[in-house]
Amino acid sequence: SEAKVLTLDGPGGAGKGTISRLVAERLGWHLLDSGALYRLTALAAKRHGVALDDETALGRLAAELDVVFLAEDESTRALLEGDDVSREIRTERVGDAASQVAGLKAVRQGLLQRQRDFRKPPGLVADGRDMGTVVFPDADLKIFLTATPEERARRRHLQLQEAGVDANLSSLLKEIQARDARDMQRSVAPLKPAEDAITLDTTRLSIPEVVERLTEWLAQRG
Ligand code: C5P
């Protein structure tokens, strides 16, 4: 039978990345950061001079993406065509391009099998927007992680401050709301909880509290 899967979907800034990594570490499971694949596709498009609305070319690019993920200490490093692009794919510019290419059916189709290939024993923690709805509809546990837009903006602001980046809280809030609207309103694989997902509002929860709750729920499911 297939390896177990825990899916974590939700809007940006709800803590999915951190929570997924910690849960995967705790369980000794594999980790899929599906957003990184959309970011890498957007970056590959830029490198190869492919326009962000050329669906046919972008679909092929996604399917043929030359990517290697290296697990290293606390983080995962991403190599695109042999180059370490771990930092570059985290920029706001690449994130924005990622959310554009993510609206294209051919791109989502091109990345589908690659995402499913991450499912290996003993299990997988899959982080994204459509992990429970499209990529792993038979997951063992589906979580939809949320937090108020204000709280997500506050967390992002803190993160940026810690990284020494100046940022404006109210413009971060506007960006977050715009990205949410785009991800929820798109016709292909829109951001929404799977019917059998548990929605967990993390606004008032600490990271260890969320990790604890998820591992408990997973244990209950056997
Ligand atoms: O999660 P992250 O910010 O890295 O994702 C970047 C963008 O990729 C998101 O804004 C979203 O539009 C898209 N995405 C997606 N489906 C996923 C993961 C990410 O559409 N499973």
TrEMBL record:
Ordered alphabetically, the record's keywords are: ATP-binding, Cytoplasm, Kinase, Nucleotide-binding, Transferase
Q: Quick one: a GO cellular component term?
A: cytosol
Give binding positions for ATP: G10, P11, G12, G13, A14, G15, K16, G17, T18
What domain of life is recorded for the organism? Answer: Bacteria
Q: Which InterPro entries match?
A: Cytidylate_kin, Cytidylate_kinase_dom, P-loop_NTPase
State whether keyword Transmembrane applies.
no
Q: Which Pfam families match?
A: Cytidylate_kin (PF02224)
GO molecular-function term, one example from the UniProt record: ATP binding
Q: What is its EC number?
A: 2.7.4.25
Q: Where is the Cytidylate kinase domain?
A: 7-217
Q: Which GO terms describe its biological process?
A: nucleobase-containing small molecule interconversion; pyrimidine nucleotide metabolic process
Where is it predominantly found?
A: cytoplasm
Instruction: Name the enzyme group at the top EC level.
Output: transferase
Q: Where in the cell is it found?
A: Cytoplasm
Instruction: Describe the reaction catalysed, as an equation.
Output: CMP + ATP = CDP + ADP; dCMP + ATP = dCDP + ADP
Q: Which family does it belong to?
A: Belongs to the cytidylate kinase family. Type 1 subfamily.
What is the name of this protein? Cytidylate kinase
Tell me which species this is from.
Billgrantia pellis
